[in-house]
Specification:
- By secondary structure, this protein is α/β, with parallel strands linked by helices.
- It has a domain of about 210 residues: NAD(P)-binding Rossmann-like Domain (Rossmann fold, 3-Layer(aba) Sandwich).
- The protein has twelve helices and 14 strands.
- The strands form four sheets. A seven-stranded parallel beta sheet has the order 3-2-1-4-5-7-11, sandwiched between helices.
- Helix 1 packs across helix 7.
């Protein structure tokens, strides 16, 4: 199959593209620069020069493909509309990458007991209302003659298969620990995120392409941990004695920016991938604590 993928020079898109290439598909990828074009071509991906704002470039690439995977941005409405309008009436699959912060709760590092699967009603935080609205728009295209589906990962960890880039939370925590000589979390660090290994996540994209019905939405998770648990394992991995330290929210915002501190590093995002498992998804990769202490982060 011919697959057009955005984000092929990034962590998720590059890993998905590598997995699909290994399965025998032809992959073209959107890239912004000649350097990135050369890099993805070296990995077997045919580059398409352009940006998410180039609606006609996106439309032409989508029409030339059998399948479209959007892994560049969870929030770029213009790109999504350009791709979906090009696919309308074709019956082709469109896989969009969202993120489980849509159900996130700002908690200042405190624990929440709220857990969500794909059928649990929720009210998004003000920071994620636009993303939730875009998700609804995407799924509405099932009535316009294409096959949209959304994959909504939780905290992603592990070494990417493509560009070798990394995800958000764990690398931020490791960089801070190396800089300060001790791991640190925002507030008490009892806030919990579900998580999923990148190797397991890419298999859900392939399964979704093969089996998912139009209008499907899938959380992706295989366990959960508090941020404090991640920090404890980072200290063990780096050989730092003693417990991690607690930052105030003001200190966390100064370190990571207010949005990242509030909506990512100090929030809760607890989900269950009920529908993905019903589809036949079977994650098998090692857990995040083991990956930190014995896997790619240690290496």
């Amino acid at each position: 199959m011919k697959i057009f993928c955005t984000g092929t020079s990034g962590y998720i898109g590059g890993s998905v593209a590598a997995h699909l290439l290994a399965a025998g598909h032809q992959v073209t990828g959107l890239v912004r620069s000649q350097d990135k074009a050369d890099a993805v071509r070296d990995r077997g991906i045919e580059p398409v020069r352009g940006t998410l704002d180039d609606a006609e470039v996106l439309a032409q690439a989508a029409r030339a493909a059998d399948i479209v995977v959007n892994a560049a941005s969870a929030d770029h409405r213009g790109a999504v509309v350009a791709l979906l309008d090009a696919l309308a009436g074709s019956g082709k699959p469109f896989i969009h990458t969202s993120g489980s912060s849509i159900i996130g709760t700002r908690a200042g590092g405190e624990r929440s007991d709220a857990v969500f699967d794909e059928d649990t009603p929720f009210t998004p935080s003000p920071a994620r209302m636009t993303r939730v609205a875009l998700n609804k728009l995407i799924l509405s295209y099932r009535d316009k003659g294409c096959r949209p589906l959304i994959i909504c990962p939780s905290l992603i960890y592990g070494q990417g298969l493509g560009a070798g880039l990394d995800s958000v939370q764990v690398p931020l925590l490791i960089r801070l620990a190396k800089k300060s000589g001790n791991a640190a979390h925002a507030g008490p660090g009892e806030n919990i995120w579900s998580n999923v290994h990148i190797d397991d996540l890419v298999t859900l994209y392939a399964l979704g392409i093969e089996k998912a019905p139009a209008g499907a939405f899938y959380f992706a998770e295989n366990g959960e941990n508090s941020v404090r648990e991640l920090c404890v394992s980072i200290n063990r991995m780096l050989g730092f004695a003693g417990p991690p330290s607690a930052m105030t929210m003001q200190e966390a915002a100064a370190e990571w920016g207010e949005g990242t501190a509030e909506d990512t590093m100090a929030s809760n995002s607890r989900v269950r991938a009920k529908r993905a498992r019903e589809l036949g998804w079977k994650p098998t990769a090692r857990g995040v604590i083991e990956e930190i202490e014995q896997g790619c982060y240690r290496e």
